[in-house]
Amino acid sequence: RHHQGYPGLFKSLAREFDHTTCRLISLSTPQEVDQIADITLKEILTNDKPAEVIYKNDQRHKVDIIPSPLSTSLNEAHIQLDQKSVVLVLGGAQGITAELVKHMSQAYPCTYILVGRSADPRNEASAKEFEGMKTKEEIRAYLIKSGKFTSPAEIEKETTKIYKNNQILRTIRDMEALGNTIIYQSLDLCDEEGLSNLISSIYEKYSRLDGVIHGAGLLEDKLFKQKTTSSFGRVFDTKVKPLRVLAEQLRTDCQFVVLFSSIASVYGNKGQTDYAAANSVLDDYANALNKRLQGKVISINWGPWKGAGMVSSTLESEYERRGISMIPLDEGKEIFLNEIKYGTESQVLIMSGNNW
Ligand SMILES: NC(=O)c1ccc[n+]([C@@H]2O[C@H](COP(=O)([O-])OP(=O)(O)OC[C@H]3O[C@@H](n4cnc5c(N)ncnc54)[C@H](OP(=O)(O)O)[C@@H]3O)[C@@H](O)[C@H]2O)c1
User: Fold this and answer.
1) Burial of residue 228 (number of CB atoms within 10 Å: 0-12, 13-18, 19+)
2) Going from the N-terminus, what domains does the chain have, and what CATH number goes with each?
3) Do strands 52-56 and 181-186 pair parallel, antiparallel, or not at all (unpaired)?
4) 3-state DSSP percent of the chain in helix, strand and coil, to 5
5) How far is the CA of 216 from the centre of ligand 1 (A)?
């Protein structure tokens, strides 16, 4: 079975091409060629709007969102972690994943292995000099004053790097202060062999891997016709490549795998064909992986977050225009922890609104 992410791709194309109807037809049961031709013709001639339809035998289905409140009071948590447990967090050193995992580690102190491309800031000689600086403005002003960099582009690049380093350092220090053991591993997740070796080394060293949270991702938004294959590849591969490695390497006793997907795969988003397609693969894979592991696998289609993470001010205004509000960090943290503890679905959409 191939996981190619068509729903997110087509729904995003539908948002980019105003005068074109884009619709994905999925056949969940085998059909004869003639039947497929009939279905296709019928869909071309049908005016209603769904960007995705699924045929099961002769029945036509639409994808819909069903409210599914989480019951937390009577249930016992589905996960059991103690001080010896090991949790691998891809993209966990900064951004929303770091915030959520920090919160989780308060309830479940153990060993967390955080992975990102950035070099370990603890090895950078200059890290101490900047450690106390909390905002980009503060760092930028300091760099300009130091006179070491002259071009604005250089100053901006260095500012972003130092800001990120500070966030990573803060995540490590905060989580250690909560009684966790933190390992930071610098690795590009597009390198499948690198991730495969990391997981083997975890099993070798600890003889266990209790849970995985895959929150790595990046945005390089552009309209589809302006995208290059290398940019599409970077965005897509960062999310998708780790999945095959996880499917091959995780032992069945892994208690949970949480994949950070996005509403972009459910609704589509202008400029995000690559990102939405990648997230659709996550949604699809969660189902497949759920069947292989004893533990639970959840793909969470997050709405946009406020207070941390990748949402730029441009993207924030685009969401506002569409009436989509941002998830407040503190409430979101609690929702995330409850989902890991009590969630029963393999795909959930969580976004901010009057009722969650
Ligand atoms: N923020 C939101 O509103 C929102 C909404 C929906 C879904 N999500 C999803 O939630 C996750 C976290 O988002 P965020 O907003 O926290 O983003 P973020 O601040 O940009 O963090 C992304 C993390 O992924 C790591 N990363 C990116 N590419 C990588 C690669 N090739 N290999 C290894 N690590 C890589 C980054 O570390 P390095 O730069 O050091 O590699 C960083 O720690 C993403 O998967 C995103 O799609 C976020």
Assistant:
1) exposed
2) 6-62 (no CATH), 86-350 (3.40.50.720)
3) unpaired
4) 45, 15, 35
5) 4
Q: Radius of gyration (Cα) for the chain, nearest Å?
A: 22
Coil, strand, or helix at residue 127?
helix
Classify residue 227 as exposed, middle or buried by CB count within 10 Å of its CB (0-12, 13-18, 19+): middle
Per-residue pLDDT of the chain (356 residues; tens, 9 = 90+): 567 899 999 999 999 998 888 899 999 888 899 999 999 999 999 888 788 899 998 899 998 889 888 888 767 888 999 999 999 999 999 999 999 999 999 999 999 999 999 999 998 877 778 888 888 899 999 889 888 888 889 999 999 999 999 999 999 999 999 999 999 999 999 999 999 999 999 999 999 999 999 999 999 999 999 999 999 999 999 999 999 999 999 999 999 999 999 999 999 999 999 999 999 999 999 998 999 999 999 999 999 998 778 888 787 888 788 788 899 999 999 999 999 999 999 999 999 875 44
For residue 350, how far is its CA from the centre of ligand 1 (angstroms)? Answer: 17
Q: How many angstroms separate the alpha carbon of residue 337 from the centre of ligand 1?
A: 19
Closest CA to 347 of 310, 274, 297: 297
Ligand 1 atom nearest to CA at 99: 16
> Who contacts 311 (Cβ-Cβ below 8 Å, separation ≥6)?
304, 305, 319, 326
Task: Indicate which residue's Cα is closest to atom 16 of ligand 1.
Answer: 95
CA-wise closest residue to 333 among 98, 89, 78, 112: 98
Q: CA 214 to CA 254: how far, in whole Å?
A: 14
- For 74, which DSSP code? S
How many angstroms is it from 281 CA to the middle of ligand 1? 16
- 91 and 116 Cβ atoms separated by less than 8 Å: yes
Distance in Å, CA 31 to ligand 1 centroid: 39
**113-to-54, 85, 207 alpha-carbon distances in Å:** 39, 11, 14
Pocket test for ligand 1, best of 88, 89, 96 (most atoms within 8 A of CB): 96
Measured by CA distance, the residue closest to atom 44 of ligand 1 is 217
CA distance 216 to 40: 37
